[in-house]
Structure formats: C-alpha cells, structure tokens
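Lecture notes, part 5. Sequence design as translation. It can be helpful to think of inverse folding as translation between two languages: the language of shapes and the language of residues. The source text, in structure tokens, appears below.
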C-alpha cells in the first residue's frame, strides 16, 4: 500500500481528473460500437477509478457516478 500527502490544490486537481475520466467512461459504456471484451476491461478500470474518487468525494457527488448496469444485456464469453 502506498500513501500520498496532497495539498488542497492537488486534491482539487485529482478530483477534477477523476470526474472527467469517469464521465468519459460512462459515455463509452453506452457506445454500441465498442466490443464487449473492451467494455469488460473498462468496467475494471471504472471500478478502480470510482474507488479512488470515493476517497475524496462527498456522498452526494459520488452518487452521480454510480454505475447503473443493465442486467441481462451483457454477453460475456
């Protein structure tokens, strides 16, 4: 495990970067042109980034990025 000390400005920048990346991935999940195998890798990355964001975001802000999955729509092989 690694530990980091960030000042307020650095936390704001990290929060901004994580929010933008999460938003981009949410848009990509709805893109029908992206293969299911790629989306599965994206799911893993989204989960990691969401947990990182959860450490610095308020519950209200975090709720905007909760992944709403459509059960039964994904075909994994």
């Amino acid at each position: 495990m690694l530990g980091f000390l960030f000042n307020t400005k650095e936390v704001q920048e990290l929060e901004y970067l994580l929010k933008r990346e999460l938003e981009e991935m949410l848009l990509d999940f709805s893109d029908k042109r992206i293969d299911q195998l790629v989306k599965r890798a994206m799911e893993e990355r989204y989960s990691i980034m969401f947990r990182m964001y959860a450490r610095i975001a308020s519950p209200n802000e975090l709720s905007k990025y909760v992944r709403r999955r459509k059960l039964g729509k994904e075909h994994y092989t």
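The translated text above is only one of many valid answers, since several sequences can fold into similar shapes. Residues 40 and 76 are 8 Å apart (CA to CA).
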